[in-house]
Amino acid sequence: MIGPYALALMASAAAGVGDFVGGLATRRAGAIAVMFLVQCVAIVVLIPTVVLFPMTSVGASDVLWGAAAGITGSIGLALLYHGLAFGLMSAVAPVTAVTAAAVPVLAGALLGDRPSFQQAIGVALAIVAIGLITSAPRPSTSTTHITSKQFGAAVTAGTMFGLFFVLLSFAEPASGAWPLLASRIAGAALFGVLGIATRATLWPTRGAIPIAATAGVLDVTATVFFLAAVYSGPLTLVAVLASFYPVTTLLLARTFLGERFPRTRVAGLGFAALAIWLIVTP
User: Fold this and answer.
1) 157 exposed, middle or buried (CB, 10 Å; 0-12, 13-18, 19+)?
2) CA of residue 110 relative to chain centroid, distance
3) What phi and psi values does residue 196 have, to the nearest 5 degrees?
4) At what angle do helices 178-198 and 60-85 cross, to 10 degrees?
């Protein structure tokens, strides 16, 4: 049986690939259209998952927690896709990823999670690693700092991701995948309303549909892995490991887009490896 920490890392990997693909799709179509299709694809994928995922009972609170998580997570994902698509990732990613990891850590501490001293060191290293991995060097010809608008978007996206982790953890394990289905329905409804209100197109262009659909499958896969992990492991540690999703995104960008790794990013990868070892090793 796969343990919670392995499941969290699998969720991180799937989310990282999904973010990379989603960013490519958003370059061809608007964020609202891509997010609407991502949610619709996720609903289709989750319907058989709901039937297959072990479940003994599901209550209204489980569905409501899932729906609340879906709204917060969808907002965070839309902001991240926008950043990936339009070159804001160097400003948005570091704050987003660290915030996404920090929120569950604080929530877990308040809810009674007590990691060991070794795991606490691992969590601290993980947050440092996430910041180093997702940071980008400032161009030598520019002395500008992150703008207040970019910083606000980054903190909002990270907080939304962190809240997604926390809210989804409140669902009972006996509810199976029903909270996930509720989260996707809520997300689709959110972007459907936003699309109608802003008169934006709700469907990507033909060339972007396969890419956005792939992002949807990967995103829901990551969420299933995360839910399975949080059902069997502590929120603080599971959420931190799941927050390593930028590692996969950056490795793909290095491989397919030719992006170079600065020394800080290489150091961050080393810290990440050490953090994972400290967290998962008894």
Assistant:
1) buried
2) 22
3) -65, -40
4) 50
Q: Which domain holds residue 103?
A: 4-138+145-280
Q: Report which secondary-structure segment, H or E, holds 243.
A: none
Model confidence, pTM: 0.80
- Amino acid, res. 161: F
The Cα–Cα gap between 226 and 241 comes to: 10
Q: Residue 72 in contact with residue 167, Cβ under 8 Å?
A: yes
Question: Is the pLDDT at 210 greater than 90, yes or no?
Answer: yes
CA 192 to chain CA centroid, Å, is 21
Q: Count of domains in the chain?
A: 1
Centroid of chain to Cα 274: 22
Rounded CA-CA distance 185/181 in Å is 6
- The per-residue pLDDT of the chain, averaged, comes to 82
Question: Is the model more confident about 86 or about 233?
Answer: 233
Q: Could you give the percent of the chain with pLDDT greater than 70?
A: 85
d(CA 133, CA 126): 10
Q: Which H or E element spans position 207?
A: none
From the list 264, 162, 217, the residue with the least C-alpha distance to 17 is: 217
Q: Do 20 and 248 contact (CB within 8 A), yes or no?
A: yes
Contacts by residues 191-198 (CB-CB < 8 Å, ≥ 24 positions apart): 191/32, 191/35, 191/36, 191/39, 191/74, 191/78, 192/36, 194/32, 195/32, 195/33, 195/36, 198/32
